[in-house]
Amino acid sequence: ETTVDPNDEEVAFDEATDEFAPYFNRQTVPKILITTSDRPRGRTVRFCEQLSTVIPNSHVYYRRGLALKRIIPQCIARDFTDLIVINEDRKIPNGLLLSHLPDGPTAHFRMSSVRLRKEIKRKGKEPTEHVPEIILNNFTTRLGHSVGRMFASLFPHDPQFIGRQVATFHNQRDYIFFRFHRYIFKSEKKVGIQELGPRFTLKLRSLQKGTFDSKFGEYEWIHKRREMDTSRRKFHL
Q1: What CA–CA distance (Å, rounded) separates 233 from 164?
Q2: Is the pTM of this model over 0.85?
Q3: How many Cβ atoms from other residues are within 10 Å of residue 168's Cβ?
Q4: DSSP character for 88?
Q5: 216-222, long-range: CB within 8 Å, 24+ apart, which pairs?
Q6: What are phi and psi of 54, to 5 degrees?
Q7: Which stretch of DSSP H or E encloses residue 225?
Q8: What residues contact residue 112 under an 8 Å CB cut-off, 6+ apart?
Q9: Domain coordinates of the chain in residue numbers?
Q10: Taking the mean position of all CA atoms in its chain, how far away is CA 137?
Q11: Cβ pair 169, 176 in contact under 8 A
Q12: I need a surface site. Which of 68, 123, 157, 164 has the fewest CB within 10 A?
């Protein structure tokens, strides 16, 4: 995919009128619902709880059999701006669905390499409630811009730098690596970082217009392995 120039007039117009424009115009305040596939196991539950400490104003709710199509209208009625669904397979978190409310889009990611806090070596102390900085690296195509804007809109606009916390989404060869760190000022000239966790890796499977609709949803992009994975030099984000 070709990279896009952030100063391109067409890109600027699209971003001024897309579903994320109210967030970037500061008309909405992010409020996130985090839920799971039905009957999550311990590791998935712990991952959701730790993810909620990374994303300010996020709330964990366990579905108890409720269909997503019924959850979404309730989220909208309660002023939630985004819905995150963590899926699992054999007790291990393996998928993340992110739906921007009320009008979409909805992204479906494969998730791998999940590490909870206790599994991270030399980790820092528990995160504080300060709003973190957000770093989005290497989302350079039109599709990458859309995905980057989805991640950005999960977090409040104004980071609280006193907390020295930073959440990074780093795209490399269409794999998105997430890390959560704290800066440590060792001296006036030396700065170290401590990883706080959790950490995980995402691979985009599809981007759908609107909110979740597995049957009739219109897809903006879908990953087709046999067609798209033939070249090691062509990337989509």
Answers
A1: 36
A2: yes
A3: 16
A4: E
A5: 217/106, 220/105, 220/143, 220/146, 221/143
A6: -85, -40
A7: helix 225-228
A8: 94, 200, 201, 203
A9: 9-228
A10: 13
A11: yes
A12: 157
